[in-house]
Amino acid sequence: MQKHIPTVANTDSLDWKDLAVPTIIDRVTTKVKPGSIVLFHNAAKNTPAALPQILEKLIADGYKIVPVSELIYKENFSVDVSGRQIPNTVSTGSID
pTM score, two decimals? Predict the structure, then answer.
């Protein structure tokens, strides 16, 4: 059985509201920060036009586009009330 790992987007494009292309671009590029997971919807009307421009801007700003699997902890973590993954600290058993 495959294990599912919960993820939460912290930047919502709101593309499902059929916002104008410039609005989607501005919303995403001004709210994204290192480690952001951006939520897009595959049936949104203006996402196909906005996405290339968003990627171009983020890459120009120094961001690297990676799959979610490279951003998340896959084990030894908990999730806080805001949906962020927090690594569990492992005790070595020694006292300094």
Answer: 0.76
